[in-house]
Amino acid sequence: MRIAIVGAGAIGGYLGGRLSEAGLDVTFVVRGANLEAIKRDGLRLTLEDGKEMHARRVRAVSIDEAEPHDYVLLTMKSHQVAAVAPQVPRLCHDRTAVVTLQNGVPWWYFHGVGGPLEGTRLASVDPDNACWDGIGPQRAIGSVVYPAAELVAPGQVRVIEGNRFTLGEPTGEKTERVVALSQAMISAGFKAPVSTDIRGEIWVKLWGNCSFNPISALTHATLESITRFAPTRALAAAMMREAQAVGEALGVRFKVSLEQRIDGAEKVGAHKTSMLQDVEAGRAPELDALVGSVIELARHTGTPVPTIEAVHALAALLAKTIAEQRGRVRVEPA
Question: Catalytic residue numbers?
């Protein structure tokens, strides 16, 4: 089994390092300082318990040098996928599967779903159809990423917590290719269950991301602060009720209650969401995949989402201001 990891950031490095140490043939498709560091010294991992792993056997190549692999794992952020999509075919042979490991609604969402929306393209996450046309939805395997990790230096990743990556075919089938990947990931120490309802799994995470992420970016508050401050807890709940209505209109069954989902976020504690971290660092936030996509799905189903639209407008203006001024926004001691 040959596996290509496109992007050797935090999650890509975590996956590739452990898969390589389990004896799998892993190639990182990267650029810049990461490319040079991994070529020179492999990939270094610091696990949750402080244990160090050094994956020396991994290869690192630029995408122009890459060859076909059995699995291609896309581990960059959602808004970065379209830029590499036209080059992904060079990593593929006829049976290659492409695993999408992004937060939010995936570009292949309406592939294999059946019904009147089958084959619908989503402009919020794939505005020029670069992913649908360049990669092809028939290659896609979905994944929900639960671990947290950080790239501390080129070729060096620190795992904060977690080892679960839920996998699933858009059609809901337990195909040979998704089962084989699951078994390979399990052999590397990951929890990698195969879900027959990957969209339902995606929505459980999206349910919180579409509310807590933009609220945190606008308020600079942690999950603990948002959920313990009555007005923002109520705002998050209102957004989540709207999102749930959208999901249910699409046939999604939510397996936990809204309050359970909020309580789960509160238990995470003083954690900064990825969108808040992006705003503080002056990076483009994943606003379209986490919030804009829900609004687009709402329009397809005729579901009103006024609260989500209002918060999205504020967060979008913040992102626009940061981009135009090439700045960042953070709260610091006076």
Answer: 205
